[in-house]
Amino acid sequence: MSADRTKPEFDAPEGPAPEELVIRDLIEGDGAEAKPGDTVTVHYAGVEYETGDEFDSSWGRGESIQFPLRGLIQGWQDGIPGMKEGGRRELVIPPHLAYGPAGAGHFLSGKTLIFIIDLIKVG
Fold first, then answer.
1. What is the pLDDT of residues 83-95, one digit of tens each?
2. With 0-12 CB in 10 A as exposed, 13-18 as middle and 19+ as buried, what is 80?
3. Residue 2's closest CA among 48, 41, 35?
4. Is residue 123 within 8 Å of 32, Cβ to Cβ?
5. Contact by Cβ (8 Å): 116, 57
């Protein structure tokens, strides 16, 4: 099961950061499908598009995390639905779907973010 998977490696992105959300399935899941507003249990890691610097990782904390999609950044709310348990998905999220433009008050404001997410459980 995906809970046992190891932390993913990030490929260096090529070209300019995308202006819209990019969704890419790395591993297709075969379990229950996430829907908008669901509560999900995931493992994830996030890096900055420009630098490749990791800013967060549930693998780094040694445990998965559960949360309702509606409480997350818009890129996750838009990028997780349709994913199935057991899947691994990469999301490339531009600032307007993440933490807003530069100067918006979050240390990731103005940055395009890349997440790799393992969906462990829906509900």
1. 999 999 999 999 9
2. buried
3. 41
4. yes
5. no
* CA gap 115, 10 in Å, rounded: 9
Query: Can you list the alpha helix ranges (DSSP code H) found in 8-66?
Result: 58-61
Rounded CA gap, 40 and 38, in Å?
Answer: 6
Please list the residues that pair with 23 across neighbouring strands. Answer: 91
Distances (CA, A) of 106 to 19, 59, 75, 110: 19, 23, 16, 9
- pTM of the full predicted structure? 0.94
Dmax of the chain from CA atoms? 41
Q: Where are the beta strands (DSSP E) in 61-101?
A: 65-68, 88-93
Distance of CA 22 to the CA centre of its chain: 11
Structural domains of the chain ordered from first start: 18-122 (3.10.50.40)
